[in-house]
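Hi support team,

I'm opening this ticket because the web form for multi-chain structure prediction keeps timing out on my end. I have pasted the exact lines I submitted so you can reproduce it. The total is 289 residues across two entries, so I didn't expect it to be a heavy job. Is there a limit I'm missing, or should I split the entries? Thanks in advance, R.K.
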Amino acid sequence: MDRFVCVRIVQGWGLDLALFQFDWRQSWMVFLMNADRAIYGRYDARQADDLVGLRKALEGALELHEKWPANKAELAGKVGPAPRWSRPEEIPSLAKSGIPKPATGRDGCIHCHTVLEGATRSYKALGEPVPERYTAVYPTPQRVGIMLSTKERATITDIDRHSAAEKAGLRVGDRILRFGGQPVLSWADVQWVLFTAVDSEPLKVEVDRAGERIDAALVLPPGWRTR
Amino acid sequence: MKVLFLGLLALALFPFQDKDKLRAALGDTALAGPWIYDDLEAGYAEAARTGRPIMVVLRCVP
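Hello R.K., no limit was hit. The queue was backed up. Here is the completed structure from your submission:
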């Protein structure tokens, strides 16, 4: 960790929502980035019981940092589409709830989960359709039939029968190197690619299978986000 | 001149004092090591100065 600048953020106020997009229901989240605000990877609380996975993600981030900025294009997908509101305090329902400034104590904090709830309420209040990504559960890899090890960046430990992953030819033991064209540092990175996926387009998967590079295409079945 | 210097010093120190107050109010004292507290801009600046990548941890104080 001493090879990183470590920043602890305790409130949502002022957060750049174009950059910091993640599963707002998580109790904590890690972003690995650089001074140019490029994102190398994400790591989430789902893996929190085993920080071996975080160590692996940190090592991966250092590898990507050494290649910066030559790898700028392959990292572009780690930033999501422009959000409806650029900062949490601009979300109408949060603004109305009386959070006009950064918190000075426990009261007045904009919590992560309130960003999701506030945006959903605001869409409804404005009479606008709530995007499916706000209403569906943030997609875990299991939704496409993949279980991943928490001790590695993204190594497959199990595959559901008849799932999208099985149909793509993925196997237990495969290490996912790239997903949707993005380098993968963790479970959360796989989740991010699924979250931002265009459902009609197959996702490219590059895996290491016993030292051999294998390319596959994962076809997302209809209704996979909500079924 | 002395007044101007003290004024500039106060301005420079204010953000850190602000974050220290927040940290004290939250009772968030268990964090060990050289962490930048609740200040992303300071994190970007430090990363640019040192050439190191950044680890941002988003976590409410329990």
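A quick check on our side: The longest helix of chain A spans residues 52-67. Let us know if the file doesn't open in your viewer.
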